[in-house]
Amino acid sequence: MRANPLLFSADVSESLRKELASAFSSELSSSQANHLREACLQLFRGHFSPRNALDPRISDLLRVLHERPDLPFLGNSLANRVGLSESRMQHLFKQQVGIPIRRYVLWVRLRNVIELAVLDTSLTEAAHASGFADLAHFSRTFRAMFGIKPSALLSGRHGLVPLMCDRT
Question: What CATH code is assigned to 53-160?
Answer without folding.
Answer: 1.10.10.60
